[in-house]
Amino acid sequence: MIFGSDNWSGAAPEISEALMRHSTGLAVAYGDSDLDKSIENRFNEVFETDCAVFFVGTGTAANSLAIAATMKPGGVVFCHNEAHVAASEGSAPEFLSGGGRLALVGGNHCKIDPELLDKTAGEYPQEFNHLGQATMVTMTQATEAGTVYSLDEISALSEIAKKYKIPLHMDGARFANALVKLGCTPAEMTWKRGVDMVSFGATKNGCWCAEALVVFNRDLLSHFQFIRKRSGHLFSKTRFISAQLEAYLEDDLWLKLARHSNAMGAELEKTLRSSNHVRPAWPSDSNQVFFIADKTKAQKWLDKGARFHPFPTPKGMETDITENEQVYRLVASFVTQQNDIDALSEIINS
Amino acid sequence: MIFGSDNWSGAAPEISEALMRHSTGLAVAYGDSDLDKSIENRFNEVFETDCAVFFVGTGTAANSLAIAATMKPGGVVFCHNEAHVAASEGSAPEFLSGGGRLALVGGNHCKIDPELLDKTAGEYPQEFNHLGQATMVTMTQATEAGTVYSLDEISALSEIAKKYKIPLHMDGARFANALVKLGCTPAEMTWKRGVDMVSFGATKNGCWCAEALVVFNRDLLSHFQFIRKRSGHLFSKTRFISAQLEAYLEDDLWLKLARHSNAMGAELEKTLRSSNHVRPAWPSDSNQVFFIADKTKAQKWLDKGARFHPFPTPKGMETDITENEQVYRLVASFVTQQNDIDALSEIINS
Amino acid sequence: MIFGSDNWSGAAPEISEALMRHSTGLAVAYGDSDLDKSIENRFNEVFETDCAVFFVGTGTAANSLAIAATMKPGGVVFCHNEAHVAASEGSAPEFLSGGGRLALVGGNHCKIDPELLDKTAGEYPQEFNHLGQATMVTMTQATEAGTVYSLDEISALSEIAKKYKIPLHMDGARFANALVKLGCTPAEMTWKRGVDMVSFGATKNGCWCAEALVVFNRDLLSHFQFIRKRSGHLFSKTRFISAQLEAYLEDDLWLKLARHSNAMGAELEKTLRSSNHVRPAWPSDSNQVFFIADKTKAQKWLDKGARFHPFPTPKGMETDITENEQVYRLVASFVTQQNDIDALSEIINS
Amino acid sequence: MIFGSDNWSGAAPEISEALMRHSTGLAVAYGDSDLDKSIENRFNEVFETDCAVFFVGTGTAANSLAIAATMKPGGVVFCHNEAHVAASEGSAPEFLSGGGRLALVGGNHCKIDPELLDKTAGEYPQEFNHLGQATMVTMTQATEAGTVYSLDEISALSEIAKKYKIPLHMDGARFANALVKLGCTPAEMTWKRGVDMVSFGATKNGCWCAEALVVFNRDLLSHFQFIRKRSGHLFSKTRFISAQLEAYLEDDLWLKLARHSNAMGAELEKTLRSSNHVRPAWPSDSNQVFFIADKTKAQKWLDKGARFHPFPTPKGMETDITENEQVYRLVASFVTQQNDIDALSEIINS
What is the pTM (predicted TM-score) of this model? Predict the structure, then answer.
């Protein structure tokens, strides 16, 4: 009955075994080992295109350094007002980009509204230095609200990015969860729909610590080696990331893990919807489930050992919940089992 | 015969096993798990004092964030002109500290000369904004030249730091190698000699990716949680660092590994000194060995499969080597074996 | 009929004369001349309290460096979403503060709504590094919408700043215009109401280039000398700012100039309200006047030589104006004369 | 007998008169007025080529923003170890360039030694992210030591800059003093010798506050408008700079002022050389004169009202001066008169 976050899990056994397997022997450091190169190539296969791949250790690093790499002086990045970059990364996007700005765009359930994006981006005329210059759109797939952009919704954002001649970045901290939900290929969910780069997250879905910034247009990140190094994000023993990703991508492990956590998310949602003690906040598309509950009741459940977190009330939902209520987030992961859900159900409904 | 760097090694088996052992189950993320807390306490025991411990993933992050955490506007950090922060961290100290400056201080074989430090620090009068204000001294133990500061040499630097009312930081990327060389305790090599904080490196000595910033005066880094987060260096599954450090510190594994690599360094040095084809650059105190060789010969050895790197000629040694010669660095690690040294010897002497 | 901005004016004759008067002779540079010191003392008299005074050249520098001086890692500054720092300073607050973030707060007519401020500031719990830490509230007096906070409205904001233990900064680019509107003393409009520091703007009100950051609690800006210098904002011949401010503050010149521009603003408003071709956007308290007009008509007036600018539709007013309409800003300055207003009136009403 | 610095002077009468002349009337702000444009064109004439001109308020801003505009991630700027950017700008080059690094290069009397520059720049191989990437060479003309690079010496540096494919910047805080010394045209001292951009300083030579960044290759600074704005260095009433420069460049005022201060420098040097109480440090080419004197004697002269400053002992001169001696700098300016020199002479020789 622990649903605090999918990053409360450890690592899948295959991941630890890969680390054990690659722990012996000597290999060139700083990303130039044979293993590192082979995993980079593996990404080319997975995404069915030539792409540059940069390993980093945290999703915040992947997102912030992507923003840094495309930043311009007085630059402005467009994101949803509840996006991870805006709400959970401690101003790393601003700091690591040397003072860039996030311009927040609304939209239901953490999805950027294309019309609002167009309107907001339109407020930054080229060459007008008093306000700033547009540099990037970043979207999250799956979103912080557990929702998943459809392929057409991705296209809608990429068209606006193109209109303003700025790249479209996808924060894929839960890339696999979105992918199995849509049932498409990585290529279909990204560059075929106009996405220019992806923070490909593997940590939340079974790795210890493995994120990859995948860039479909190599020119975009020409200085990235320096950007990563000067922020302390170049590991010496990069093998430890490559080894994890080797196991992660082998035999579709990543998709299996994501299917499991999504299925557990769906079970969790079904169970909660059947209870009279909570009410759904909005439908989930992935492994994150959101419910509204009475604060006093929720505290009791927490006291009994359940683990989940309050979630800030999204803009536009202020009137949907009373003062005694709160939106809560519950996250299933690759280790969640039916009996965790049953135990939670018993606590809630007893 | 691979002596490229100690970070070309993978991980000690005990480290990978600890990762396997802690991979199951759920635990609070972002450094608040029981394991994280227990390892922080373990550091208090190891250093025999109350200290704050912050895990990060790279030595560059540990050093640069220590510099950032004590930075002031117009701040200047004093370091050796061949220190890792100055020569190998891609301007991360400057970038992550928001534009701080490194003031380079000379000294033989990568050890800061106390008199030169005093002279240099004295050039920054308080309140004189045109030049900048002194904020920190950072020393490397063991140094990039394989030498190790004696306890009295550490005291000499800390006295000058105290004179200018700035903290003394120790870059301990090879902390264990220095420690077993001196045969003292961690406390004796640090706070008992006036060191205020340490980048405690474990990666080069058997971990995959585990560094800890250890601070003896908690007030010094009051905002560190925010500094680490805003630079993308807070891991979600911090357990993966804690697990490594658990094994690292257990049963003196770290000291055993360091003793091994130092012993291999000594063997390597002995072997090289007995050869007519190279000549020693300076005596080594640890696992890094430096020799001068003819460039053409060295290239032949590399062509035969040996792995080692040229090292920039230290200031003051320009006249000691001819134009056809070069200083080379060879590094032993916890995986180095006598037969590696023998193989190298055969290549060099054949 | 030029109402583009109050910074389209040059300098009052008294200002230029002061520059001429102080142009001869030699004086210590970088703020340490007798004249510099005497003007700093003059500010102590004007504000009836001990205060630190730092001269800079632009309002953007004054605001951004105030933000920088109180910034913390992961820091967040609260301001109105249409504030100058957010809408017209090209991300200087973020850049000069090393990556700080502005959190935008709503409120009618550019005044921060105290309840919304309380709610927003409350979203940043202390020690929660994922979102950031509150560092400052900055308000604009007079606002970008020409409105003026009443003394009680200032108190309301300072109480919330105190609640969150953060300083309250006042962007006083049009300080004098607000002051003469309220008819109170500088002390009454600032520290007596809990304001901790002021960007005291003189440029828009008759100087060439003279801004002063006035701080009532000297501890707040202990490193400011370094912060100003490292951003290139310390002038060598600071006399040229002091000389301007000497004339500005002498014989209440600054209040006379502000009274004139406010009176011209009132005349302008009266004239526009009497026209059938425009409609008022909201009532003005100072020298900036806002009207809604048909875009096609407005273009005709511009073609005839009138000068004024469109103003972004404030949040909450979207439904008040039709698609063919636009909010326009007209600014009176110390050089505006009745015949300018008459000429504009003729263009609009002909 | 005030020789503290050339920035202790106020403004030439022609400068103040120009400010008075342009103080009336209204003009577009932020650099778009007719006067601003005409002065930019005037620079094209002065430099006999198409160039972009950006006005700023301080030499530190001009230098630092030039460095910022050409900065790359992990970027390194080469300058003399006693250059103004390294010794007197409070880390503004690092801060305003977002954490760039200065690599110090030696050379006698503040002139960069071309061989040392070549050697130092050669230590930064392209694509090697551990050390950083070369981004610019910046030289000072006239230097901080009062010396002036000959045209061939400028060519020597520009050839090395070209070799490493990085721009050559000239810090021209005392551009006019160097120019009249060499007796050549602005074009001959800059782009005809491979200089890519110039910080054209007018403040020290008779203006209140007027510096211009002049760029011969417009592509180099494509984002400069944003870089200047985001650092708070875009003035609203840019007319106040343009007006100064109008007078400065009219009828060769700038050359006349520089000839005067150089002539006074030569007189000062002659007078000092004739004294038994001081000895020359090195020959001066411009308005800055350097002498070695006994510290006790110097203090007496200062007590009698003379004004000059100690100068840090240049590298390589440590053995030339005894412990009781000190190098002192004396600066003549456009307001220095023969009787100032006579008064100093009397103090020294009495």
Answer: 0.97
